[in-house]
Write a structure and sequence with these properties.
The structure holds two protein chains of two kinds. By secondary structure, chain A is of the alpha/beta class. Chain A is about 40% helix and about 15% strand. Chain A folds into five domains: about 110 residues, Glutaredoxin; about 210 residues, Rossmann fold, CATH 3.40.50; about 80 residues, Roll (Ubiquitin-like (UB roll)), CATH 3.10.20.600; about 90 residues, NADH-ubiquinone oxidoreductase 51kDa subunit, iron-sulphur binding domain (de novo design (two linked rop proteins), Up-down Bundle); about 55 residues, 2-Layer Sandwich (Alpha-Beta Plaits). In chain A, a hairpin with a 7-residue loop joins strand 17 and strand 18. In chain A, helix 7 runs parallel beside helix 11 and helix 8 packs across helix 11. Chain B has six helices and eight strands; from the N terminus they run βββαβββαααββαα. Classes of the chains: A alpha/beta, B alpha+beta. Chains A and B meet through helix 18, helix 19 and helix 20 of A and strand 5 and helix 2 of B.
Chain lengths: ~625, ~250
């Protein structure tokens, strides 16, 4: 660790070259993910066992580095052995001994731990050859598995704080803004407002005191890219923020992180303290005369606090309730002072723009949307995890080439983009380029980047119901249309899934959804009806089937289906009857059984119990 | 252009267009204030002249902008801006207001104010199951308590569908002076008062009303006319009736 305060950017560079010099590129070291995803799969136990094993039996000089999330959470805990790049997945504490004695000492490869590509069925030894990784462009996530988030030297070794040194010693604030504008960076929080323009507005706003905020209140169900960046590489975000503060002329910053991300809060708090210790935060940073400090604010867990005005209220210590824009935060923000709010990923992009140069950065992506975007690819897909691709990559490429397609030979039905505020894109439209404008034309939004893949077994009415339930919990309750409207929409959709709706209800649902979208004040309410509107747009026949024929085509809505036993397939083993909680199944031994529909509560235990596929939904 | 107010204060103005009429407004005014000044009627529920704007009821929405890029905003919170084009009663606005009234009426169907609005806007049926609530969460009482009475005795608790207005910890509080301002300002929930209930933490304004209040205090404490509330009168009549029966 560094024990000095950097007074000039030359000192910073000198330290970096000292760090790099101490690192032998051919040295053996292990990169092991201890992000939240891998911890959930037991990474902490593996790490403890590994450290012990290395101490006891390990070859000397092997460094064991606990890093951030590389994104392939489904296969965690993940381990990569450098410099060969041997990729082990699903590592358990019992594998630790083998890894040390065979791979580290003898160079043998343990075949059980290798990743098997589901599309080709081949084992992959090297991390680089894993199709999930090789088809991505990992600008921001790329450093996560190389860096120990608690060690600032690690970040410096991969080129960290070069951009800051360059900005503070060579550039003027206006030049930085010009560079960001030229790069075409747009807000990664979802709305896609040009970042450079936002910075300029805040810079030009009246008032000496200005604030910047990093919005890390990621609340979409199934989205976790901001968490991974903050946990795995907090310094990249903080570097972007210091550069932004310099460009905007702000002297104080906040990282607003939800408390449900304990590791992210811990790592980013530690990183801020490290920056203060080395003089990259505080007064007269790198001798430039620029003063800046920041603090970490923990959110109490409200989805609506991701909305910028509610977020600012929360920072001020008030209840997180959105307010009218204009005045925009860039004019009147926290405590009435001009405030610039950007998403975690937006800030993390800034150092790359400065290092690469605006032109090179603008070459990534397509015409309207530049750079890369991280998506959380989840749901019914073979490879789940974080995927970073250039803007404009088609949805098809993401799902089939990186995601590996839909498991169990099922067909793709729709992709839900942008979280609860987003919309469902039907399978017919998956050639759409994933950028701000592309998704908009199908009623979805980029959002923070959640991507939930749904197969043919998904009921779209049920999906709408799920998101409405989430939003009902999270609506702040200020606006009538959002508070009452979402509740009423949920009522209608619930009626549909229970077979109690009529065709008029579809019209009412659509009418109400449009008014809620139109009339509510903040972004949450404006986008809340999107799941309903997009499913209505592309899957109206399913709504009609629910309302008119009282049928659920995907056979999900319990009130509209029945479980039946196929007499030809049933062997009369009685396994289902034993497990049925309602004792609704009866029949003689070795004779076909029957389900008493009056007793059946449609829990589906019989279906999952039957080994012969005799139980079916109707 | 500038407006001269008094001798020293000079307030800059902005030009806007409301319902095809070119108007001038002071900077810092809201669309609603300008509309009221020029006589354009906009219905409101959560707005009051003496209180800070809230923008919660969404009844005062107006359509701003031109061509395809119009949008609905709450006029009580949206600031008057140079070149703003406002339509106070377009098809879209009416449609939204009708739905707002229908939603509120479904929540609070006994309110006379809401029933009157429904009749004014031709809302003939409520297509949602009725809820029998007596508060539309407009927050006027919270704001009058804080901003005019300087008490902050009541506030919003919880969020979304569970949101309600009450005292801290739903408990009786000494901060409440029983001034009755919350009841005075309430646009919808006149039905809320259930008579002098000592357990009711919200207001108990009637506890301070003549003549029942004299059972509790030496001096009458009522700030409201009998016709504004009348629960205390009912209470008295009940007592009289029961006495007669005895």
């Amino acid at each position: 660790m560094i024990q000095m305060k950097f007074k000039t950017s030359k000192e910073l560079e000198a330290h970096r070259s000292a760090v790099l010099k101490a690192q032998d590129p051919k040295r053996k070291w292990i990169s092991f993910c201890v992000g939240t995803g891998c911890i959930a799969s037991g990474a902490e136990k593996v790490a403890a066992a590994m450290k012990l094993e290395l101490k006891k039996n390990g070859p000397k000089g092997v460094q064991f580095k606990e890093t951030g999330c590389p994104g392939f959470c489904e296969r965690g805990p993940l381990m990569v052995i450098h410099p060969e790049g041997i990729f082990y997945q699903n590592v358990k504490p019992e594998h630790v001994h083998d890894i040390v004695s065979r791979t580290l000492k003898k160079g043998e490869i343990i075949k059980e731990l290798l990743y098997i590509d589901p599309s080709s069925g081949k084992q992959v030894t090297n991390e680089k050859d894993v199709p999930f990784y090789s088809k991505q462009k990992r600008l921001i996530l790329g450093n996560n598995p190389l860096v120990d988030p608690t060690n600032i030297d690690d970040y410096m070794a991969v080129g960290g704080y070069t951009a800051l040194g360059k900005v503070l010693s060579e550039m003027k604030p206006e030049q930085v803004i010009e560079e960001v504008k030229k790069a075409g960076l747009r807000g990664r929080g979802g709305a896609g407002f040009p970042t450079g323009v936002k910075w300029e507005t805040t810079r030009n706003a009246k008032g000496a005191v200005k604030y910047i905020v990093c919005n890390a209140d990621e609340g979409d169900p199934g989205a976790f890219m901001n968490r991974s960046v903050l946990e795995g590489n907090p310094h990249s975000v903080l570097e972007g923020m210091i550069i932004g503060a310099f460009a905007i002329g702000a002297n104080e910053g906040f990282v607003y992180c939800r408390n449900e991300y304990p590791l992210a809060v811990k790592n980013v708090t530690l990183a801020v303290q490290q920056l203060r210790d080395v003089g990259l935060l505080g007064k007269n940073i790198l001798g430039s005369g620029f003063n800046f400090d920041m603090s970490v604010v923990r959110g109490a867990g409200a989805f609506v606090c991701g909305e910028e005005t509610a977020l600012m209220a929360s920072i001020e210590g008030k209840k997180g309730v959105p307010k009218q824009r204009p005045p925009f935060p860039s004019q009147e923000g926290i405590w009435g002072k001009p405030t610039n709010i950007n998403n975690v990923e937006t800030w993390a992009n800034v150092p790359f723009i400065i290092n690469m140069g605006a032109e090179a950065y603008a070459r990534i992506g397509n015409k309207t949307s530049k750079g890369t975007k991280i998506f959380a690819l989840v749901g019914k897909i073979k490879n789940t995890g974080l995927v970073e691709v250039p803007m404009g990559t088609t949805l098809k490429e993401i799902i089939y080439e990186i995601g590996g397609g839909i498991p169990n030979g099922k067909k793709l039905k729709a992709v839900q983009c942008g979280g609860p505020s987003g919309g469902c894109i039907a399978a017919a439209n998956i050639d759409v380029p994933v950028d701000y404008e592309g998704l908009k034309q199908y009623g979805a939004i980029m959002g923070s980047g959640g991507m939930v893949v749904m197969d043919e077994d998904t009921c779209m009415v049920d999906v709408a119901k799920y998101f409405l339930k989430f939003l009902l919990e999270e609506s702040c309750g200020k606006c009538t249309t959002c508070r009452e409207g979402i509740e009423r929409m949920l009522e209608i959709v619930t009626r549909m899934s229970e077979g109690k709706a009529c065709l008029d209800d579809i019209a009412l649902l659509e009418e109400l959804a449009n008014v809620v979208k139109d009339t509510t004040m903040c972004g949450l309410g404006n986008t809340a009806p999107n799941p309903v509107l997009t499913t209505l747009r592309f899957f109206r026949d399913e709504y009609i089937a629910h309302a008119k024929d009282k049928k659920c085509p995907a056979k999900v809505c319990k009130a509209l289906i029945s479980f039946n036993i196929d007499e030809k397939k049933c062997t009369g083993c009685g396994a289902c009857a034993k497990r049925c909680p309602q004792s609704a199944i009866s029949g003689e031994n070795k004779r076909p059984h029957k389900i008493d529909q009056k007793k059946c509560i449609k829990c589906g235990v019989c279906e999952s119990t039957c080994k012969f596929g005799a139980v079916s939904r109707r | 252009m500038q407006v001269r107010r008094g001798i020293e204060e000079v307030i800059p103005t902005v030009n806007m267009r409301i319902n095809d009429l070119d108007v001038m407004a002071e900077e810092g005014q809201t669309i609603l204030e300008v509309c009221k000044f020029y006589g354009f009627d906009i219905p409101t529920l959560c707005w009051d002249e003496g209180l800070s704007p809230y923008g919660g009821c969404r009844l005062c929405v107006v359509e701003i902008g031109e061509g395809k890029n119009t949008k609905l905003v709450s006029s009580c919170t949206y600031p008057a801006q140079e070149g703003l084009i406002v339509r106070t009663r377009s098809k879209r606005v009416d449609h939204a207001r009708k739905m707002v009234i229908e939603l509120l009426l479904a929540r609070c169907h006994t309110s006379k104010v809401l029933q009157d609005l429904a009749s004014q806007y031709d809302v003939e049926q409520v297509r949602f199951p009725l809820k029998n609530d007596d508060c539309i969460l407009c927050g006027l009482c919270v704001r009058i308590c804080k901003e005019q009475m300087m008490a902050e005795a009541i506030g919003f608790v919880d969020r979304g569908k569970d949101m309600k207005i009450t005292t801290p910890f739903n408990d009786k509080t000494d901060t409440c002076r029983r001034c009755g301002a919350c009841m005075y300002i309430c646009p919808a929930c006149q039905a809320r008062c259930q008579g002098p209930d000592v357990k009711d933490p919200i207001c108990n304004g009637c506890l301070s009303m003549s003549p029942t209040c004299l059972d509790f205090y030496d001096d009458a404490q009522c700030f409201m006319s009998e016709s504004a509330c009348g629960t205390c009168v009912r209470e008295r009549k009940k007592e009289e009736v029961s006495k007669k029966e005895v």
